[in-house]
Amino acid sequence: MLIWLDKEMTWLAPPEGSPGRPAVFSDAAIQFCLTIKVLFKLPLRQTTGMVASLLKMAGSDWAVPDYTTLCRRQRTLAVQIPYP
Predict the structure, then answer these.
(1) Would you kindly state where each structural domain of the chain is located, as residue ranges?
(2) Which end of the chain is more exposed for a tag (fewer CB within 10 A), N or C?
(3) 77 and 25 in contact (C-beta within 8 Å)?
(4) Which of 25, 71, 78, 24 minimizes the C-alpha distance to 47?
(5) In sequence order, what are the beta bridge partners of 25?
(6) Number of H helices, E strands in the chain
(7) Which residues, 6+ apart, have CB-to-CB distance to 58 below 8 Å?
(8) What is the Cα–Cα distance from 30 to 28, expressed in whole angstroms?
(9) How far apart are CA 63 and CA 55, in angstroms?
(10) How confident is the model at residue 62 (pLDDT cuts 50, 70, 90)?
(11) Per-residue pLDDT reduced to its tens digit, 22-43
(12) Angstrom distance (rounded) from CA 84 to CA 78
């Protein structure tokens, strides 16, 4: 199995300047986690563990979105699936 992670990917969300608590993780980070969830048919709590393991194996020090963040953001995420 080969999973490619781009080190230049924007993992943390840019500041928005709108009222309320700002998002910590970018849409790309949430989409990556949810893609892993669907590919391996995992519950969200197991998805966070697998993503943490993948990031550790990749040598990345990125934080992993927690269960609550994934659960909340999956409802509003507009997924962009590119066609070949």
Answers:
(1) 27-74
(2) C
(3) no
(4) 71
(5) 12
(6) 3, 0
(7) 5
(8) 5
(9) 9
(10) very high
(11) 889 999 999 999 999 989 999 9
(12) 19
| Percent over 70 (pLDDT), the chain | 94
Q: How far is CA 84 from CA 37, 66, 81, in A?
A: 22, 31, 10
The dihedral formed by the CA atoms of 56, 49, 34 and 31, expressed in degrees to the nearest 10: -30
Instruction: Give pLDDT tens digits for 65-79.
Output: 999 999 999 888 877
Phi, psi of 32 (to 5 degrees): -60, -45
Nearest-angstrom CA–CA distance, 79 and 73: 11
Measure the CA angle with vertex 73, ends 61 and 30; round to 5°. 35
State the DSSP code for 8.
Answer: T
Q: Which of 13, 11, 14 is nearest to 58 (CA)?
A: 11
